[in-house]
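One such shown below:

_____
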Amino acid sequence: MMVETYSPEETFHLGEEMGKKAFPGMILCLSGDLGAGKTLFSQGFAKGLGIDEPVNSPTFTILQQYDEGRLPLYHFDVYRIGDVSEMDEIGYEDCFYGEGVCLIEWPQRIREILPEKITEVKIEKDLEKGTDYRRITVEAER
């Protein structure tokens, strides 16, 4: 599926709609350049799960956990991971194989430990179509 959004609100709404359809064990891998909208999409996704607390990219903590929604949300930002073994230290397996939902920003850094069934969400900018334009491609369960 490919969706074009033309405002931050539309990107947020797409995330929200996907959050409403999320299921236990779902893993979304978010890729895109810095400033592409991964965190905005994540905020919408969290809202779709019923999470009202502020959702920010966990760049410096690697993992942020939210428990107030209908499913636990594990939001990873692995941009600063130097070695995939660092994921063991944060107990990633409990998140990947638990009853919650995982959002992983910069998944290419930990590709070798990702489960077989994931949903890839690629967010791309195209400045020729405007600064708020995003092309969002969703490929379910590779």
